[in-house]
Backbone:
């Protein structure tokens, strides 16, 4: 686990950024704290904040260790003086101020209020007399954010001017992109002008965020799909389509974007930094679909486009984001027949709304068309539905049982009543909701019940999953027939992914379904059934993650990832906190391999927040703390992180989970090394202890990955033979257990070390082997390792062009996924530099070629022909 080791006596952040300690009461000033965090991060500084809730170690020690590593003190004061702990004389708020070193710059911000605690008034008076503190008032969170950003910038400018010696921060060294634009499942009608208008906005390059705004069902997502396809030529570095439909927590925006960009989050660096690196200099379009449910996270986009100025964002949302750099495009409805005129019999002059109705009706009746008998009814239907594409599709689906006159008549009778029942919605929202109500009202009870129950599923689901929640429901035993009818009625969509037939609901239909389910009081019951099905599925699949079925297990879980997220959310929402902890822990290997630690951290912090209302077991507390501290261990290593992981060791041990205790011990050892190289002996001892415990437990996956950490530590210390022994042992254990991931990781390191020791042929065989393993796992970081390894061998053999091309191709992969290697473990660059001196023209030509290679082409260049053929099929989907 010592993958992020640096050569500094104390590691404060991966890039040694200035750290700003933020002091305030937590609950009272939550909005102001978030504003200050935004201001600090806007300047690319590191906020030091306490957001993890109650901690298992003394608060005063926590303040001291955080303050000892901070450079600037920011205090935010409102009404409350804060809680005074037993046996203490002052609150934590005052204690933090007292403990801040006198030489530390202090920026104090006091909120205008008439109800301030007396003791806080006394503290503020003392601060006013402190010549080391700057003291300012503020009114609102936005006001505060602007003040803090300006004051910090001024402070840094003053320090820069005093020093006259600017120090440059060194950059951190150290699955196929799923965000492809969806293929439309039906013809897009009537959007030519809108597509051209959006293309024009994107082509100008002056708007960082183009927002497609409109009510549900108006066709925002479809327009985004068509516009992004039409604009692909303007974004040579890619178009990424990010589905936010199942993302309900603002904290999951960055992890979701990272996932769709192909960035593996192993916790070793902040996701925002990784995304910034991955997007640096790249002209990409990132489509964010269904943003309205996390609109509070909109300021994150400002931070992203600030650090990635070549990236453009196309957003679909029901509401305007209201951020800097946003250009709003109101998505109009489809055109309908003018006035009270009937639909045109001539296709060339037919309105878009009528054309859409006819197109969708022909899926049911191939001979359907506008006739003199139905032209007026079709026009009335489209006008009554206000040109809303989804509403028109739902109405067109009814031609299976009703003719246009009957559809028009029923809409005339039903829509006014239904829209009156939802007067609190904007006009077109009312029409869309009423159309869904009307469409559902025509269904038999069992189909209505099924549709409402489907609201608990995430983006997609299978028939097996649907059947699993049917016990005791009105549609029990009728899932297949009822689901087929919902597909026929355009309320459920179907498709295929990974060879499986899957189903999905449009976002607005899912929203309607879950709303009806809540009204019936059945939501929690169906959520429990949903969570239990995926718990059972995970219990069946998770054991394969550490063994021979690893690749298949990772792929299977990836197909169900949206519902795994939903299952954790359902467990926490229904207060099954211990089940949520067990669920998250059982998937530790999957989170590790696939890189989802930031997401899991969000769920576990939510779980810890709820423990005050719903008690949890010590084991669940240890699980939640382990995940919460994982990113802290890499990004903000400190004494309190070491202490927190030590508490995890204790809790796991006391609850009898020796495997988890050993894993937490290994993590604590890694945190020690990250925090201070003075602790390497203690860390090494803990890693050895963890390996022995895991070996005794027969946990080969954890034993191997921990032995890899011992090898890394030995290599950095200069003991190459010891490092090689650890890599050998880790590889043999992983291979024996069928663990492809750790075999790849350990094998890559072993082959690099063998290469460094002059064992070129042995290294080359293993570079090829681990490259093949990484392709099988769809592990892009491993592919980059393998390409760099073959590059080193090619350079050693004097193959300047090939070596240079492979180096650049590997670098492009690393840049795109935001993962960089630790300098100590990089072996290919010295040989390449030697070749650059001998044959600069070939190296330059190879580098130019490497920048244009696809992943498949780079792999083909690296592998012998026979080996490439064995993986060619897998690479075609990359």
Residues:
């Amino acid at each position: 686990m010592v993958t992020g080791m640096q050569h500094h006596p104390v590691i404060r952040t991966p890039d040694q950024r200035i750290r700003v300690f933020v002091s305030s009461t937590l609950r009272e000033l939550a909005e102001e704290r978030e504003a200050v965090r935004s201001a600090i991060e806007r300047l690319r500084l590191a906020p030091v904040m306490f957001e993890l809730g109650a901690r298992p170690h003394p608060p005063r020690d926590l303040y001291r260790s955080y303050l000892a590593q901070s450079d600037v003190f920011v205090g935010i004061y409102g009404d409350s003086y804060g809680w005074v702990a037993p046996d203490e004389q002052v609150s934590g708020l005052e204690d933090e101020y007292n403990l801040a070193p006198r030489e530390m710059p202090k920026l104090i911000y006091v909120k205008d209020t008439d109800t301030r605690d007396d003791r806080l008034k006394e503290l503020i008076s003392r601060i006013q007399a402190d010549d080391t503190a700057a003291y300012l008032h503020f009114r609102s969170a936005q006001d505060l954010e602007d003040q803090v950003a300006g004051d910090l910038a001024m402070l840094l400018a003053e320090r820069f001017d005093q020093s006259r010696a600017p120090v440059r921060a060194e950059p951190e060294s150290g699955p196929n992109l799923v965000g492809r634009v969806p293929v439309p499942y039906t013809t897009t009608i009537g959007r030519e002008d809108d597509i051209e208008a959006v293309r024009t906005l994107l082509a100008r390059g002056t708007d960082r965020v183009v927002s497609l705004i409109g009510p549900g069902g108006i066709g925002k997502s479809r327009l985004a799909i068509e516009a992004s396809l039409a604009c692909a030529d303007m974004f040579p570095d890619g178009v990424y389509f990010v589905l936010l439909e199942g993302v309900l927590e603002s904290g999951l925006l960055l992890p979701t974007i990272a996932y769709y960009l192909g960035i593996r989050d192993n916790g070793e660096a902040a996701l925002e930094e990784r995304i910034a690196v991955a997007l640096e200099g790249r002209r990409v379009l990132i489509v964010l679909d269904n943003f309205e449910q996390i609109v509070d996270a909109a300021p994150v986009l400002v931070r992203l486009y600030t650090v990635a100025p070549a990236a453009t964002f196309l957003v679909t949302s029901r509401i305007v984001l209201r951020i800097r750099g946003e250009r709003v495009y109101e998505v109009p409805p489809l055109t309908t027949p003018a006035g009270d005129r009937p639909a045109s019999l001539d296709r060339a002059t037919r309105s878009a709304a009528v054309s859409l109705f006819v197109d969708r009706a022909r899926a049911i009746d191939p001979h359907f068309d506008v006739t003199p008998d139905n032209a007026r009814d079709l026009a009335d239907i489209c006008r009554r539905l206000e040109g809303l594409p989804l509403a028109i599709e739902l109405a067109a689906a009814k031609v299976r049982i009703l003719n246009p006159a009957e559809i028009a008549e029923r809409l005339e009778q039903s829509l006014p009543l239904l829209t009156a029942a939802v007067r609190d919605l904007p006009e077109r929202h009312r029409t869309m909701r009423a159309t869904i109500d009307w469409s559902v009202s025509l269904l038999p009870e069992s189909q209505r019940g099924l549709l409402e129950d489907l609201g608990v599923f995430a983006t997609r689901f299978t028939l097996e999953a649907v059947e699993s929640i049917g016990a005791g429901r009105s549609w029990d035993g009728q899932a297949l027939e009822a689901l087929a009818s919902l597909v026929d009625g355009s309320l459920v969509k179907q498709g295929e992914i990974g060879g499986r037939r899957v189903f999905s609901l449009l976002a607005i239909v899912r929203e309607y379904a879950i709303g009806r389910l809540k009204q019936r009081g059945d939501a929690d019951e169906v959520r429990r059934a949903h969570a239990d099905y995926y718990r059972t599925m995970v219990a069946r699949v998770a054991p394969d993650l550490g063994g021979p079925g690893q690749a298949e297990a990772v792929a299977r879980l990836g197909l169900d990832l949206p519902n795994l997220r939903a299952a954790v959310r359902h467990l926490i929402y229904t207060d099954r906190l211990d089940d949520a902890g067990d669920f998250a822990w059982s998937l530790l290997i999957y989170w590790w391999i696939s890189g989802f630690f930031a997401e899991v951290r969000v769920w576990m912090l939510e779980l810890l927040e709820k423990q005050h209302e719903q008690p949890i077991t010590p084991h669940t507390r240890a699980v939640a703390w382990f995940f919460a501290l994982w990113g802290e261990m890499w990004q903000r290593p400190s004494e309190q992180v070491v202490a927190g992981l030590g508490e995890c060791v204790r809790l796991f041990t006391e609850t009898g989970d020796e495997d988890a205790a050993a894993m937490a011990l290994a993590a604590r050892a890694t945190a020690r090394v990250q925090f201070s190289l003075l602790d390497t002996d203690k860390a090494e001892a803990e890693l050895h202890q963890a390996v022995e415990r895991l070996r005794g437990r027969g946990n080969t996956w954890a034993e191997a990955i921990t032995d890899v950490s011992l090898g890394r530590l030995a290599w950095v210390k200069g003991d190459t033979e010891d490092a090689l022994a650890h890599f050998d042992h880790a590889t043999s254990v992983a291979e024996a257990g069928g663990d492809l991931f750790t075999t790849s990781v350990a094998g890559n390191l072993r082959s690099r070390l063998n290469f460094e020791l002059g064992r070129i042929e042995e290294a080359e065989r293993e570079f090829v082997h681990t490259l093949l393993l990484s392709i099988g796992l769809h592990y892009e970081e491993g592919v980059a390792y393998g390409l760099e390894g073959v590059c080193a061998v090619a350079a050693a053999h004097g193959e300047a062009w090939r070596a240079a091309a492979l180096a650049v191709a590997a670098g492009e992969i690393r840049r795109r996924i935001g993962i960089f290697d630790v300098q100590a473990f990089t072996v290919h660059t010295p040989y390449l530099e030697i070749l650059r001196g001998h044959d600069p023209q070939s190296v330059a030509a190879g580098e130019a070629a490497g920048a244009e290679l696809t992943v498949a082409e780079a792999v083909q260049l690296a592998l012998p022909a026979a080996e490439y053929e064995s993986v060619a099929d897998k690479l075609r989907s990359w």
User: Anything to note?
Assistant: The CA atoms of residues 224 and 605 lie 34 Å apart. The longest helix spans residues 141-163. The first strand starts at residue 19 and ends at 23. The chain is about 60% helix and 5% strand.
